[in-house]
Amino acid sequence: MAFDSLYLYHRTLQEPSFSVTSALGQFQGKKSQEIAIAKAASIELWKVNSSTGKLSRIVSQDAFGSIRALNAFRLAGSSKDYLAITSDSGKFTVLEYNINTKKFQIVFNEPFFKTGLRRLAPGQYMSQDAKGRAIMLSAIEKNKLVYVFNRDSSDNLTISSPLEANRNRILTFASCGLDVGYENPVFASIEIDYGQFEFNGIDPDSPPKKTLTFYELDLGLNHVVKKQSQQIPHTSNFLLSVPGGKNGPSGVIIACQNFIQYKSPYTQKAFIVPIPARTTQTNRDFSSNYIICGTVHTMKDKFFILLQSNFGDIFKVTINYDSNMVVESMQIKYFDTISICNSMLILKSGFLFADAQHGNKSLYQFVKLGDDDNERIYDSADYFNTSEEVEDVVFTPKDSENLEVTDIIESLNPILDSKLIKLSEQTSRISTVCGTSNNSALKVLTHGLNVEEVVTSELGNTATGVFTTKMTSNDDVDKYLVISFASHSLVLSIGESVEEVTDSGFDVETATIGVQQMGIKSLMQIHSNGIIHLKNNEEEGTQKVNEWFPPAGIKIISCTSTNYQLAVGLSNRELVYFELSDEEQLIEYQERKEMPGQILSLSLGDIPEGKLRSNFLAVSCNNQTLRVLSVDPKNVLGLVTVQSLSSNASSVLLLLMAESIEEEYKSYQLYMHLGLENGIYVKTLINSSNGKISDRIVQYLGPYPIRLSKIKTNFGESSVLICSKESTRIGFISKTTGFKSLPIAYDSSLSYGASFQSEEYPNGLVGVHDDQLYILSLEDFTKEFKIDVLPLRFTPKKFIYYKNLDGNSAYYIAETDGNTVLSAEQNNEQMIYPRETGSWASCLQVINSMDGELIHNIDFENNETLFNLASVTFKTTGLTYLVISTAVDFSFTTKSSSPRFYLKCYKILQDLKLELMHQTKVEKPVASVVDFAGKLLVGMGNTLRLYDMGQKQLLRKAEITLNNLNNIISLKTQGFRIYVGDIKESITFVVYKPKQNIFIPFVDDFVSRHVTSFTTLDYDTVIGGDKFGNVWALRCPEESSTLADEESAGVFVSTQDSYLNGSPKRLNQLCHYYINDIPTSFMKNHDASGLNESVIYTGLQGTIGLLVPLLTQSEIRFFQELQKQLTEQPELMLVGRDHLMYRSYYAPVKGIIDGDLCEKFGSLKQSQKNQIAINMNQSAKEIEKKIVDMRLKFSI
Amino acid sequence: MADKLRDKQQYELMKSKHIGIGDPDTSKAEWITNVKRDTYSSMAAHHGLAEYYSIGVNEPMQLSKMKFIDKMVQPYGPIEKRK
């Protein structure tokens, strides 16, 4: 059955940026407020630096369950917030942040309902009592539960069994908890009773009324009662609690179309204000203003409310009340405009966190509170009901005066399309089109660590090495930068600027092998003819110079040093070892050791904390061996171990790296890093007591010698810089997962590199490549992608990348916004496009892929919608055209419009601009276009049609209607085979027979998958995803595949009996897996070595994921077992969801291992690791090595 | 006969507890109403589906969700009363 199995290892490269909601709290139990963000399946905690206004992530934890709602609550008198979460696990989860482990830990996981996001499962809405005494969970229909919190005698949080408040035939739209001080907790919800409409039709003129219902939790009797119900307008959608008790009048804000009301269970009187409309919207036909998001900010003796409309406009609402807390009036005025948010949070330190729905999440600082501007104020005294037509309630959007952005979280949500673009043999980029409307952008992702370019400079000659050193052992920053050339050196001093110095005392007439600061004040330069030892006495301003020379005619070719030790390799194969005396004199060890080959590289490593010297010296010789010698005083230059290698090691580096990341048990291990001449990088562990080498991790980086150097940063432990001619990587220990090796996201690779620490750039990196010098500054190691952003105009639907014969390339991006007026205005947050129902704003942008310049912009002024585009090279003309499918006067919802559909052909000119050739009218919307066999193939509804280029329009050549399909949304081709992806009916394989000019569908699927995107893995296999968040791989049976390709088999296949209204045969499902995001593209990728294949996918909510094939049975068994072991660790399943059930959300998981879970092995405590290791009959180190091996199998 | 009566009572009890339980007399309208309510609630509850839809129609997710729940009131049309 080898043919019929495929095992993939799934790993998330970039977590989704979509967030469900966010909450503010003092989770660390300190004064400072943190922001908890609920992602689709993970929890993040962010803190705000109130002096710089920057956000930084404290922790991100996978929950392995879909999160529905999140709330922070605090028991009265306590200073620490808990997180309450509902999810698809059917459990009510309470988490607490543990300061020691820096993670959230589970306090409760109380089951209350079946799993899944069901109609009746409470948890869609969560509302809490302001005093943290109770939380109400509501389902969309019928069910409501209330949990009551208490404290036990030892001050621990306790939770009651849930109290039910179920009401049949009730739909809930929103809910919130009232602030009632210490009275019985009251919850409000917007509801509709559909009972009355079960048997009666709905009169469109009087749509069903909604009610605002108050539920009271009687703490004495311990039950929940419906307290009161009030009728509210049928468009009501938003509910927000108003401060009560000592802080305000209590009650709620309810918003409906065009109006905001204040209501309270204690009074009958409602206060009404209209939602001001944009002046750009007056006289336009558009379904008006709604409030979608809001927040209250309480200060010492007053509070104000910010509400956001569906345009992104923020309004400030103030409620005036007298000393008896009786409301007198309510006022509203325009405040500012920002991106549409899922939630807004106001921090006590004067920041607004805008959890934007699409586009980047931003942190704003309040510059003003809008108190003294001359915006018009609308007062509740003038408005009495929510059905009246109000006129002249408008405002003019203006540039932000009240809010100022201080930081953003780069977000990819939503990714609508993406392509993997190969720039060279070694490097690729993932280009994505993201965002909607005025947040739209083309984002180009480079896999690698973020670096900032500080300086580049030309050196004139090809450099052969680069070194940095500090002046004295007390310095924090480097003083000298030494660049070595073939026969001379260049010494630069590092200060505010980097400039050449001549008085350094270093020899610049020879090539430098190394520089080192030794002892307290000594400085060494090891050059090819000897060693210069400088002793600086700054007080006296003198410099003492000592020199050491090798025997005549002998040169130094390699060296290594620590602050106390120095070893050099001579060209006569002798190894010389020095130590520093107390007087800072260099003392040569009496014996020189002859090595069996030329000494290519040496490394002494770091001096362990509290020790005087490093005990080991690694020596690489040109007879493909590596030796570890002891430099312990008892056994100086004694041999510890020998390794033979597959190739000469051009570079060796001993490095102490943090073994366990948790602060409390931080320990260091000695690692040996090897860079071989054949391009292999090896990391091994050296046992610090006996020098034995174990736990080898190997990575191939292309066919060039590798050089290593140590780099220091102020945000992490020592890490290793891995330089090869074509790629530069950094190997480091990640806080959450252990060892990682990532490229640096920089255009040029570095041949040699070194750490560079200056006042201004504490995390610098200096490198040379040929005759170029680069000084870069590293950003932290948490981001795996560097994102370059180019703003677009409207929501990008699809794009293509086209490269012409001259090697010039461009992105062609089809952008369309529905219900929007086409305007030429620049996009920014304030300039939201005018909206009008039924109007389409579309444009096609051509953007140079090299410099991001806009080459060409085509506006579609005829109320046109763009669906899809492709570049097609027609055999008949030999030219390449851009074909774009469009519709005029199209509407998704109203059937009455009379749309017209077109295929527009543009000639792609030499300068990549477009010239309209002609347009061809078609009957239905064309959702897919593809270049096929020198012609154009389109999917139009359920019809597959082949077009050729004509003078006046496209010429129809062949066509088939696939009756079992609905709408062909994606097409892929290989040879004469076509893979047809349908919006509802999965994938169908079709073969085209050019001789007979017919299409023959020969195999389709047995499951109705709602395909969103797919690609071919090989000729017979496709991998794709559906709109429910599944990924699957399907394979055609071998026999059908060969039969379909037989020249004469056409008639046979087409006359075979159809099976269940479809093709004669069915596809086999190889893999199935739930990723909890809607896949929008799949891309096949080979890494630089060409050895490892993988599939990268992007998800709508901003996920970038990776699927790597598992090749051997033992690998498959290992990861299956590891996954099983890890699912039994309850602390990893934050919301208590069964992992297997989660990944099998719609259909049983098959053939895919959850690598994200496997990666969690690194975050476990050592005791847990050991237990799993025992259960799996392996050592914990072996398990870690296998996980790292999988991690290293990917590069783009 | 008593058994039949008890069966019926038990069925009514289950039906009031668990929405969507059918019997041989369930009409097409009842069936479809229930399926559609499940579908709309699923679209409101699954963030991915709601976002996918809201991007398509170019409106905030919150409004899409409200519309889904609004449609649950009477997704198919009035159901005929049983005799």
Automatic annotation (TrEMBL), chain A:
Database matches in Pfam families: Beta-prop_RSE1_1st (PF10433), Beta-prop_RSE1_2nd (PF23726), CPSF_A (PF03178)
UniProt-listed GO biological process terms: mRNA processing; RNA splicing
Domain RSE1/DDB1/CPSF1 first beta-propeller: residue ranges: 24-378
UniProt keyword list: mRNA processing, mRNA splicing, Nucleus, Spliceosome
Main location: nucleus
Coiled coil: none
Stated family: Belongs to the RSE1 family.
Protein name as annotated: U2 snRNP complex subunit
Species, as recorded: Saccharomycopsis crataegensis
TrEMBL record, chain B:
Biological-process GO terms, alphabetical: mRNA splicing, via spliceosome
A cellular component annotation (GO) from this entry: U2 snRNP
Domain of life: Eukaryota
Name this protein carries in UniProt: Splicing factor subunit
Organism: Saccharomycopsis crataegensis
